[in-house]
Amino acid sequence: MTRYRVEQLAHKYTDHDMISLHTELPGFPSGRIRLLHAVLSQQPAVSSNKELLALVTSLVQMGLDTHDMVENGTIEGKDGMPAMRSRQLKVLAGDYFSSRFYHLLSQAGQIEAVRLLSEAICELNRIKMSAYSKMKQLKLNAEEYVHYGAEIKSGLFLSFTGFMHGLYERLWPELVERFSRCEVLLQELKDAEKEARLNGGWGFWHVMQEGTEEDRRALAEHREDHGLIRQLMEKYGVAEKLGGLLRQSALQLRELVGRFPSDKLVRDLQPLIEPFLAAGGPQPATAWKELG
After folding, report:
1. Does pTM surpass 0.85?
2. Contacts by 229-232 with C-beta closer than 8 Å and gap 24+?
3. For a tag site, which of 119, 193, 207, 213 has the least CB within 10 Å?
4. Does the structure show a pLDDT above 70 at 80?
């Protein structure tokens, strides 16, 4: 398998002119898919199906992420029709991507994988509803926000724990959850640095948790005031704190990877962790020698 093989296969299902012309899709979950493929390669019982399992997981994830991009509420004004078309295409595209996993796995006789992924989808919907409810009531703190985000990213991938054996079975849940946490923190750091998605991100919940009563009240009452939010993000050092959290999680992830018994797997996973280490802050030049 080449480095981008699964993503190339997925493009057969995700590349459509109608979608690209009228709406946008979420990013391909490349890191988690490569993580899954690399670890499945070490499992003799399923290694021959690793490409298929990685492909269908990527399609299900794309389907779920596409549905999550659908905005609620009414659409008005001169841009109403394009916006409505974009919303409809996201719903249809998400349904299509999700349906492909059942078709591909059924053709291959992988009924157990169908069951496990279907159960994971149901659990993910429950987690999303719990998170949404807490957000709506302003009862979420910053760490819970990251935890929910990592749960949502890792949910499908945890389904494959039962396909693994020995030390791999014990380490896989922590590996995928830690990797997903790093993904969440990295995206939050990028958003904070670009001043994107200021309302509702980690910084918002951090200020609501740690801010003064005056700042919390102002933030709760003026959630659409980007100028105010930007000022508070700077006041509470959101970008710096996110960088520290990412660095800490990336180092823990690096240590965890080093516990796997396969030197080849460790080498294969190193490039997936390096972006987290780089974004989290300067690392010693000998950082990877501990895994050598």
Report:
1. yes
2. 229/198, 229/199, 229/203, 229/204, 230/195, 230/198, 232/203, 232/207
3. 213
4. no
